[in-house]
Design goal:
The chain is an all-alpha fold. Helix content is 80%, strand content 0%. The protein is built from six helices and no strands. It is globular. About 9% of the residues have low confidence.
Length: 99
């Protein structure tokens, strides 16, 4: 995820803590990212500005960075999604007595 934070910081001018906040926003909405990058920026921009407090201009720049580097972004987010899936699988297995 450090690569994502760095990309966002470099391409948008966000401070590191804000870039991390936007990165975490993307992690939380990982399922929506493919839909966002295949369309126009309006959905991403509206939600990102509302939930992270970044400006519209910064959100537009973040969108362009995400879209331009979509393959790498999806790998970063995919790794996070895989980790969450493994945790969920373990939790569900624990409910049913699996070891």
């Amino acid at each position: 995820m450090e690569g994502l934070y760095k990309l966002l910081s470099e391409k948008t001018g966000l401070a590191k803590d804000k870039a991390e906040q936007v990165g975490n926003f993307l992690k939380e909405h990982a399922a929506d990212v493919p839909k966002w990058i295949s369309g126009e920026s309006s959905q991403f921009v509206a939600l990102a500005t509302k939930q992270t407090g970044i400006s519209k201009d910064q959100a537009e720049k973040a969108f362009e960075a995400i879209k331009t580097h979509s393959g790498q972004v999806m790998q970063w987010l995919g790794g996070q999604a895989k980790g969450l899936a493994e945790k969920a699988k373990g939790a569900i297995g624990g409910l049913f007595g699996a070891k």
